[in-house]
Design brief:
The chain is an alpha+beta fold. It is about 40% helix and about 20% strand. The strands form 3 sheets. The protein has a 5-stranded mixed beta sheet, with helices on both faces.
């Protein structure tokens, strides 16, 4: 057909109808609904991680090459993004390709985590529909104020009051904390499910969906979130909800427990207990 209408094609980049195709360096399988890293690329990434872990120092060029490979792998191994920031931070201040930087224990820990991810996922990810129907996904609503935090999941709910050590903590961290805590509290109910995390904080929504931030405390929470997600086989997305619609979680965060129970009598009689002290 292309010959008949005189459209030039490149034979080396043309394939017949197929259920598997390599596109932008990634193998797409429409039967298994998987996207995979090619074997040779997977081997190269593993080799680069091992080489880095066996080295005390790396040049800027070596760090950039490693970061490039891991960033590429994040297309498939999405949890890995949370474990890339501390490796990226090693390049700060290095202005010449041959300048060297000693690997920190934190960066090594992240590279070890990457080894686990590649072993666990084997460079594969499941293709999910962009549209999550309410009938096949679960919803978590959380909120935080300067007084406390709270969340609602199905008929379960929890809340807590910030102690003095949290008085100077940024509100973004306070808003992210109850989401991470909720995954740990309701892990058994969320396992093997799609979960929508609803927050009225746009920054938190962005951080969760991208799984990265320049703030070290936020990244500590993000890594904690990712580990819980992996352990319970969750698929998640953060979604923004206007504060005026996040009424139940807002009441809990303001410690208005009596009012919450009056307006939501169908919820569990007692809250899910939160272990103290609160730690990031």
């Amino acid at each position: 057909m292309c010959d008949e209408i005189q459209i030039p094609i490149k034979q080396s980049k043309t394939v017949n109808p197929t259920t598997k195709i390599v596109f932008l360096g990634l193998e797409i399988d429409t039967i298994k609904l998987e996207i995979r890293l090619p074997d040779e690329k997977l081997a190269k990434i593993r080799s680069s991680i091992i080489q880095a872990l066996n080295s005390k120092k790396l040049t800027l060029r070596q760090l950039q090459s490693l970061i490039g490979l891991l960033n590429y792998a994040c297309t498939v191994v999405s949890p890995g993004r949370a474990f890339l920031r501390r490796v990226i931070d090693l390049t700060i201040g290095l202005t010449k390709p041959f300048y060297v930087r000693r690997l920190t224990q934190e960066a090594k820990a992240d590279l070890h985590a990457w080894s686990v991810f590649l072993e666990h996922f084997n460079g594969k990810a499941v293709l999910l529909s962009d549209k999550w129907e309410s009938s096949d996904s679960l919803n978590l609503f959380t909120d935080a104020s300067n007084l406390g935090f709270g969340g609602v999941f199905q008929n379960k709910w929890f809340y807590g009051k910030w102690d003095a050590s949290w008085s100077t903590v940024h509100i973004t961290i306070k808003e992210l904390f109850p989401i991470v805590l909720a995954i740990e509290l309701f892990a058994n109910d969320m396992a093997n499910s799609k979960v929508n995390f609803y927050s009225d904080n746009l920054a938190v929504v962005h951080i969760i969906n991208n799984q990265t931030s320049k703030d070290k405390l936020i990244m500590r929470l993000v890594r904690r979130l990712v580990i819980s997600v992996l352990q319970n086989n969750l698929f998640f997305r953060a979604r923004h909800i206007p504060g005026i619609q996040n009424v139940a979680a807002d009441m809990l965060s303001r410690l208005q427990i009596s009012k919450f129970k009056q307006l939501y009598p169908h919820m569990d009689q007692d809250p899910t207990p939160v272990q103290q002290p609160l730690t990031i």
